[in-house]
Amino acid sequence: MQKADDLGYEVRATGWDDPDAAGLRDAMQAEMESRYADRVAEVLAAAADPDRKLDGALGVEAEQVVYVGVAYAGGTAVGHVALRRYGDGVELKRMYVAPAHRGSGAATALLAAAERAARSLGASRVVLQTGDRQPDAVRLYEREGYTRIPVFPPYEWLTFSICMEKPL
């Protein structure tokens, strides 16, 4: 699935192991570790607790992924999004845009591509989890029709979680 938007971003469907996709996920991971640095110890302690259901909260297994999209601008990979099954819908995972391309429409193009993919997979809704230190992401999702919902598993132990959904 490829589609170029009006701002020149082309979102290409690819595999989880695609080098551009992996590089963007690595950049996202580094940014999130920095943004939430003071909470890392709390998260790691919770992850070590065997009574917590952590499957899927901190990581994404390749076999769970049903769609990966990478946004390109002039041949350069600038953004990433993935979907995995979640109940009767899909969960948006690893949405990321390189800092130099934020505010330029890349995130909107990625989100639109993910929603098209979700519809083609027969999903009834898209759910997502983000954090309280990502207000730009929350504003994007709200602008695109997502509404807040109660924190859903496995994120309930991440006290800074914000969860949202959009019916398709």
TrEMBL record:
SUPFAM superfamilies cross-referenced by the UniProt entry: Acyl-CoA N-acyltransferases (Nat)
UniProt keyword annotations, A-Z: Acyltransferase, Transferase
Ranges where the N-acetyltransferase domain occurs: 27-168
A GO MF label: acyltransferase activity, transferring groups other than amino-acyl groups
InterPro entries for the chain: Acyl_CoA_acyltransferase, Bact_Acetyltransf, GNAT_dom
PANTHER family: AMINOALKYLPHOSPHONATE N-ACETYLTRANSFERASE-RELATED, AMINOALKYLPHOSPHONATE N-ACETYLTRANSFERASE-RELATED-RELATED
Name of the protein in question: GNAT family N-acetyltransferase
Organism: Actinomadura physcomitrii
